[in-house]
Structures are given as C-alpha cells and as structure tokens.
Backbone:
C-alpha cells in the first residue's frame, strides 16, 4: 500500500510509513525481508524512470540507510542463528515441488492423490485467469504484487536449499496476503458479470476445499499427538536412556520426559 503511495506521491509521509513497515516486516519474518527488498527494487526502477531522479534518489538512499542502521542491532542474532543451522546441501526442488509452490496461495500439500491434483489444477486455472485479467487491464501494481510473491518464494527455496528446514506455510503468510490483496483488487474491477461470477465461483470452490483440507490436517495432527504422547509415556521411566539427535528435539521433549 505504501509502496504505491511512495511512487505516486513521493512525499515524506509515504516514505516514512514504507520505511517503518519494512523495518517491522524484517524484524517479524526473515523471508518477508526478501519481499521488502523486491519492493525497494521496484521503487528504484520507478525512480530511474521518473523526471526528478536526483531528488527521489536522495529519499530512497535516506530510507535504505535508515533501515540498515535500525536493523543493525539484530544482525548479531541473525549471524548466530545462521551458525546454529549448518548447511546440509539440500537438492533442488523437483517438478512436484515446483507445482506445489505454484499453488501455494490455495494449498501447500505434497500429496499427489487424484483429488489433490484436481484441486491444484483448479488453483492453476484461477491463477491463469487472474494473470490474464491483470495483463488485459495493464494493472501494474497488481502484477507487481503477484510477481513479488512468486519471486520471494523462488529466492526462499534457493536460500532454504542450504539448510535442513523446509519453507513452512506460516512463513509465507505475508506474501500470500499480498497475492490475495492484488487478486481481490483485480476481481473488484471487473465489469463483466459473467467473468465476475466465474471468478467468485472459483474463489468459493478454493475456499471450500481448503477448509476441508485444513480440517483433515487438524484431525491428523491430533491423532499424531495422541500416538506421540502414548509413545513418550511408554519410554518415560528410570530404565530408559534418551538420546536427542538435535537441540530442537531436546528443547521440545526434555521437559515432557522428565516430569
């Protein structure tokens, strides 16, 4: 929102809010810092195309320097976190993984059942129609938002490749919010009632199926937690020797096994 305000108004208020929320985003979630970086690259691109390049570059530089200075205290923590998660050399995502990330705005599930594949095809149809509408309307800001989401995911995948962790869906919530904001704006501009009805029907279908998938996932998690609790109770005695293979496992299970 403030990215659009900046490139339309170039006033101090818009720059102040963009800088503030960029800083808060970087402190909140590392992956969203990638999105913020892409937003600033977009701003720089528009500055270079503007008539008053020199004045806008000064505003841009002041914002970036402010971000660096204000984020510097956290760099010590960031470096420590990187050292505690050594590289494991994960492989590049396979075709199924790429397919999974393309439909992450609707569902992120590696399941390849017929129902899940059909759901992802519907999600891809919805994505294609949104991109087509954005292209026909020459909606620059909406296109920029969709691009930011997918580039953030792509960069994140290559960054996470060097660690033992996968990209959890909760890490992607900010960019998913950008996607659905741009999508809602695009749908809201539709004047053709037939196309509007189709898009709303697809949204309802995607939302309904997502609710069912979420409910199944919650049920599976409850069942897993019950099995885990039963197993921990069976080994939680004085004759058992517990070996933790990670610090995370120790932090999660140690207290439960020493009650």
Residues:
């Amino acid at each position: 929102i403030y990215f659009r305000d900046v490139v339309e108004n170039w006033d101090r208020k818009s720059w102040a809010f963009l800088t503030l929320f960029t800083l808060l985003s970087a402190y909140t979630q590392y992956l969203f810092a990638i999105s913020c970086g892409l937003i600033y690259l977009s701003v720089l691109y528009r500055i270079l195309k503007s008539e008053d390049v020199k004045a806008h570059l000064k505003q841009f530089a002041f914002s970036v320097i402010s971000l660096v200075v204000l984020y510097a205290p956290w760099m010590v923590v960031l470096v420590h976190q990187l050292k505690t998660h050594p590289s494991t050399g994960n492989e590049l995502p396979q075709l199924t993984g790429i397919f999974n990330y393309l439909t992450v705005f609707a569902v992120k599930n590696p399941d390849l059942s017929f129902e899940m594949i059909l759901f992802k095809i519907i999600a891809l149809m919805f994505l294609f129609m949104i991109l087509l509408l954005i292209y026909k309307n020459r909606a620059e800001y909406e296109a920029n938002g969709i691009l930011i989401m997918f580039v953030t995911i792509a960069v994140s995948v290559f960054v996470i490749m060097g660690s033992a962790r996968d990209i959890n869906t909760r890490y992607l919530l900010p960019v998913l919010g950008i996607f659905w904001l741009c999508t809602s704006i695009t749908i809201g501009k539709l004047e053709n009632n037939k196309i509007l009805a189709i898009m709303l029907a697809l949204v309802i279908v995607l939302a309904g199926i997502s609710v069912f998938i979420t409910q199944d996932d919650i049920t599976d998690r409850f069942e897993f937690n019950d099995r885990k609790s039963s197993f921990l109770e069976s080994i939680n005695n004085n004759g058992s020797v517990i070996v933790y293979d990670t610090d995370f496992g120790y932090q999660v299970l140690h207290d439960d096994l020493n009650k």
